[in-house]
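Example 3.
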Amino acid sequence: MAHDHHHDHEHSELSDTQLRVRALETVLTEKGYVDPKALDAIVEAYETKIGPRNGAAVVAKAWVDPAFKKALLEDASKAVATLGHVARTGDHLIAVENTPKTHNMIVCTLCSCYPWEVLGLPPIWYKAAPYRSRAVKDPRGVLADFGVSLPEDTEIRVWDSTAETRFIVLPMRPAGTEGWSEEKLAELVTRDSMIGTGLPKQP
Amino acid sequence: MDGIHDMGGMDGFGKVEVEPNEPPFHETWEGRVMAMVRAIGANGGMNIDMQRFSRESLPPAVYLSSSYYQKWFLALEQSMLARDMIGADEIERGHSLRQNSPLARGTFSMKDVQRVMTRANFAREPRAKPVFAIGECVRTKKIHPATHTRLPRYARDKVGIVERINGCHVFPDSNAHGKGDNPQWLYTVVFAGPELWGPESDPTLKVSIEAFEPYLEQA
């Protein structure tokens, strides 16, 4: 984010925030509200253990295992829980399937609701005004920003995450991947393909 | 509230800018803020709806010009000040100057970490049967509460179809204001693009919201 030409300015601004955050953490620690070691553990989990590869494993399994796919579409929380991820999946996860007729896209227009346990922390663009404002009105324009263009007659279904239900897109399995292992398939599954702003990589 | 956070359908924010290989946090303090918000929430300081309402209540200019975790930080500080969980003098000094009552679930410590890594369950025992059925035509209400609501402006007073019933959940409009769970049936309601955006809308567009029963009436 910092650009060299006004680096000093941004640096001092960030330092100010950094100092204020440190002050607040000290106050909360001294009051006995939080143990900083437990905060470390949360940060570390999101930096190292929880990310889109969890979701990619779910998608790849659904591509090769019809029984798992059926279970996933019926109750994604329950199906994902059987895979034993580090961040145990909470309730109310819903998987939505892309087909040749329908393309799904996930947004949270009101804040930043996102399936953290399977995709990790949301990227900045997901939480920012351009995506939140346009996804529900001009999804094809948004897809164009991602370099994605879909057939004119494909139905675009946008899911606005306005409650505690969370969504993950089950993208279509790319052609030419017959006989591939789950591990190999998972490498084709991008984060954006599970939000619906991208498609899986082609083999 | 009809706040700046309710962005669906607004124009003028420009293109979506994607940062390749974006790290989970750009600065160390961002991770600390995220963890503090989760910790205080998990151990009974403020529930998720109170946290959302405090972010929505930031002045619009601040909301738009602050980064995501700056908003989280400002809202956390504000809402802890408003609840007398911390004092302005303590923020100023960077140290605790007095004792406060502990969080409902005590100090957030290592034993609480696993719990916070799993999303809470928001389903509650229903007090009545759902009023609406799958496939039924419904109209969202024309409401403009000054308090917290999860019915976005663009989807008010619009006709859609009930597609799913997602159980009976904590009602954010009550929970955000300390008025308890007040469980309500939660539906996925889907709208055709032109119903939301008029005749110029992309005809292939369908948008759904997650709508609590009090947001809906018979169409």
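Chain B has two domains: 28-117, 137-218. The mean pLDDT of chain B is 96.
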